[in-house]
Design a protein that fits this description.
single chain; alpha/beta; Rossmann fold; 5-stranded parallel beta sheet; 5 strands; about 10% strand; globular
């Protein structure tokens, strides 16, 4: 499954070569990696009342294992928790209220978050948490975040696509060097797939 995801991301990067998105995703992922520290407050991932970032949560869990960075596995914070939900799906918005220094809060919001979530994000930032957003351009959320990656409604990609790019880049311990010379499409795709599916190497 992880190999298939890596191939999909490699294809996405090839299709989007020459646009801002591969580099922007890597920049954002680098900020995310540096903000989540071992033995810190952890990574909290929250969406809006209408949109829960299930797939991003699952991909970040996978990337945390492959990169040897367990702290990158997020806690998915949900707007609605039902009795009987398993523990990993039973974390409500109250968890954000306890986020403080050392914690990282990643907000995924295709549209404007409701006032209750924005208030909690504001309080978490004031308490010292690092706030990041993958968003559709809401001005208030942008004002709260330390780092943002905005996917405008008229962009050539959608937010789900950008989440794939970000999660894959988050798991990269080292960015691969740019290939020299001109390579055929199949050769470039093969090289990217090999780099994405290989066990992580240490950076020196």
């Amino acid at each position: 499954m992880r190999t298939m995801d890596a191939v999909r991301v490699a294809l996405l990067r090839e299709v989007l070569a020459g646009t801002e998105w591969p580099a922007s995703a890597r920049r954002f992922a680098g900020f995310l990696r540096s903000s989540v520290v071992p033995h810190g407050g952890g990574l909290l991932l929250v969406g809006t009342a209408e949109y829960e970032p299930w797939h991003l949560a699952a991909h970040l869990v996978d990337e945390s294992v492959w990169s040897g960075r367990p702290e990158l596995a997020p806690t998915l914070v949900r707007h609605r928790v039902r009795s009987g939900d398993p523990a990993h799906l039973a974390v409500g918005l109250g968890r954000i209220e306890s986020a403080g220094r050392g914690a990282t809060l990643l907000v995924v919001a295709p549209s404007r978050p409701d006032g209750g979530l924005l208030e909690r994000v504001h309080d978490a930032r004031r308490a010292g948490a690092t706030v990041l957003s993958l968003d559709g351009g809401d001005a208030e959320l942008l004002g709260l975040a330390h780092e943002t990656l905005t996917v405008a409604p008229d962009a050539e990609v959608d937010l789900d696509t950008v989440q794939h790019l970000v999660s894959a880049a988050t798991g990269e311990n080292c960015l691969p060097p740019a290939p020299r010379g001109r390579l055929r499409f199949r050769d470039r795709l093969s090289r990217l797939a090999d780099q994405l599916t290989a066990p992580p190497a240490a950076c020196w």
